[in-house]
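Explain the record.
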Amino acid sequence: MPPPVLTPRAWIEIALLALIWGASFLSIKVALGELPVMTLVAHRVFWACLILWAYVLWTGLPVPKQARVWSAFLVMGALNNAIPFGLMAWGQQFIETGLTAILNATTAVFGVLVAAIAFRDERLTFRRATGVAIAFGGVVVAIGPSALSGLDLRSLAQLAVIGGTLSYAIAASWARAQLSQLDPEVAAAGMLTGSSLLLLPLARLVDGAPVMPALPATWLAIGYFSVIGTSVAYLLYYRILRVAGSGNAMLVTLLIPPVAILLGAAVLHERLAPSAFAGFALIALGLLVLDGRVFAAKIPGARLRRPR
């Protein structure tokens, strides 16, 4: 198999994925105007689950039958969908779309820390530790040091979003340990099955009997974040992983916040404080240090070990 490379097509696909996921934050914010949090999240995973299984069956990919694999799907559905989707959707009720996307960029940072704990071959080197420290400084700047002095709804919402990114990071290591032998599309469909099994009864328990949205904008938002923002985005993401590698795919986290900030400003008239932009700049710098290639290019003969 040829080594991963950032081809012009890969760059286009990374930009497209950033646009899709950046707009997902906006569509969730719109749907929250009419739907309760758990119902919204249940919509997101259920419809995406049906679409991905249709894709798996259409392409003839093998469907696992082992109980161990389906148990791993259930855990993955909780870690990568139910918990982070719920925390982030709740948080978005109280903070801006763009700030949610900025904090979401810390997923890669937590991913490095969790992987360093879980796997020997992903140890925390000096460069990676430096990148983590810079990015965490960016998080503090983005949410504002004053938010750390007292817990109100806004600061709790920001902590909820960060909690969601930590759950994503744990999910990535779980997937590597338990699901790496599966086709990525099958793993994604199974994961969404697990999250649907958790979220459908939970939404019924927390929100009561489902109420059909009355506004066309809410239906459009549901269609977007479930069909495009989840099922199509996963298929595109896994293609980028195969072609460009995990290190290059991480670059999408740098492009999502600007998209979400611009859409939030254009559609919802949201405005972020200058500290949010300064924080994002530090998070982006931390991610570039973690990736390493920009700085290695300045040092003749430098060689980097590609993240696994």
